Amino acid sequence: MSAADTRPSLWRSANPPLRDWRGLRVWVVGASSGIGEACAHAWWQAGAHVTVSARQADALQRFVDAHPADEQHHAVRAESLDVTDLAACRAVAERVLAAGTIDLVLFCAGHYKAMRATAMDVPDIAKHNAVNYMGAVHLSAAIVPALLAQGHGHISFISSVAGFRGLPNGLAYGPTKAALTHWAQTLYIDLAPHGIGVSVVHPGFVQTPLTAQNEFKMPAIITPTEAAQAMMGDWARGVFEIHYPKRFTRVLKALRCLPHRLYCWIVLRATGL
């Protein structure tokens, strides 16, 4: 039997399940608010060693102050980070790894501004790409070699249902999320045979500073705490694609299968745009 034959089958395998977080080491990039902050809090409650990163050092310090060490919880560490800076990603990754092997890294950094083709802002499109997609590339380049060297670990990316198909106001945001989903899918194919977990998260509407910009009624909107609970449950089951709330995301998944003209007609009717 060749070496390749001994590798886990992609058809049979799923991500290694993550059920008991006590003593595990997690790193949340984009933890200053929203889903990232909620996940960091959930991991702290579950007894994990948590490192939080974001550009806003003051927000990170508030999180650290609100999550002190005690008999049940480990101290939270903060590392300021701008994911658009590859060198900074590598430097922070080295400091995080110096504390011990890493069990899960969550990429939750994001930039969003509603945009349509009638008011195209190329510099802001570039910013979307720099944060939402290239930020994930930078983080992956900084951490994946270490995961391969240690022989275990998991990297997860917050994408969006906005990346499924084109949507009004999504000219800048949607393409970066589609690219991020593709990135995660390919990473899974490459890393699963090495025992490394990869997951991609497709949230619907979640109450965050980003969605607070929306001026329309957001269907099936949930809290960041509810989002974190959904993700924790699916990481425990080894799921690759995590999506929630399913009453909303399943509809958008079905819409992906429609012919283009019918899809556009339904979207325009539903949004009134």
Describe this structure in words.
The chain has 273 residues and is an alpha/beta fold. 43% of the residues lie in helices and 13% in strands. It contains 8 helices and 7 strands, in the order βαβαβαβαβαβαβαα. It has a 7-stranded parallel sheet with strand order 3-2-1-4-5-6-7, sandwiched between helices. Helix 5 links the parallel strand 5 and strand 6. Helix 3 runs parallel beside helix 4. The N and C termini lie far apart (59 Å). 39% of the residues are buried.
Strand residue percentage: 5-15%
Distance between the termini: 59 Å
Largest sheet properties: 7 strands, parallel
**Backbone shape:** globular
The run of helices and strands is EHEHEHEHEHEHEHH
Radius of gyration: 19 Å
**Helicity, in percent?**
40-55%
User: How many strand elements?
Assistant: 7
Please report the number of helical segments.
Answer: 8
Tally of individual domains: 1
CATH superfamily: NAD(P)-binding Rossmann-like Domain
Structural class: alpha/beta
CATH class: Alpha Beta
Q: Output the strand order for the largest sheet.
A: 3-2-1-4-5-6-7
